[in-house]
Amino acid sequence: MAVFEIPKQPTIENKGLIVVLDDVRDPGNLGTIIRLCDWFGVKKLVCSKATVDCFNPKVIQATMGSITRVNISYVDLETFLKDVEAPVFGAFMEGENVYQSALPTDAVLVMGNEANGVSKAVENLITEKITIPRFGDLQATESLNVATATAVLLSEWRREGS
Fold first, then answer.
1. Is pLDDT at 162 greater than 80 in this prediction?
2. DSSP 81-124
3. Count of domains in the chain?
């Protein structure tokens, strides 16, 4: 058991890689994504106002302590993305192959809702659509879990930058 003071919402600096979540609803996914941000050195996680509360007990448990090392903000995504200066990448089924993409150090990576993906309003603000290609022979799997896709994309971002 641990007791923490809930921090005030941090200022979002437009430097480095920023992960943005558009309406992620599953507490386990959010907790895992927070932990992934910590693992890959992403300090800024920006969530839509409809994303599950980061202080939900299931989210806290899934972070395994990483919630104390990642700055999490809940904002209106359209307003935030209109003001951001870095390129805005979005994860889509029909994007450019991430393994063939140039991934800049200063960027925004948008991940969508578990069932519906990135909303149309947010999609209109994305400058680069990227995808994780399927390699299986049948190519019948519909999609990846949002936390799994985030792990693959963050790993590729860091591989590119190292």
1. no
2. HHH--S-EEEEEEEEEEGGGS---SSEEEEE-BTTTBS-HHHHT
3. 1
152 vs 39: CA distance, rounded Å: 12
Cα 81 to Cα 34, 54, 56, 65, 109: the distances in Å are 20, 21, 26, 28, 11
Residue 154 falls within a domain, yes or no? yes
Closest CA to 122 of 12, 11, 21: 21
Structure-block tokens of residue 101: 């993409």
Pairwise pLDDT comparison (157 vs 6), residue with the higher score: 157
Closest alpha carbon to 18 in 106, 98, 96: 106
Tens-place pLDDT, residues 4-33: 666 666 666 778 999 999 999 999 999 999
Stated pTM of the model? 0.91
Tokens 């990846």 map to which residue?
144
Half-sphere exposure of 134 (CA within 13 A, CB side): 12
Position 11 in a domain? no
Residue 3 lies in a domain: no
| Cβ-based neighbours of 103, under 8 Å, separated by 6 or more | 89, 156, 157, 160, 161
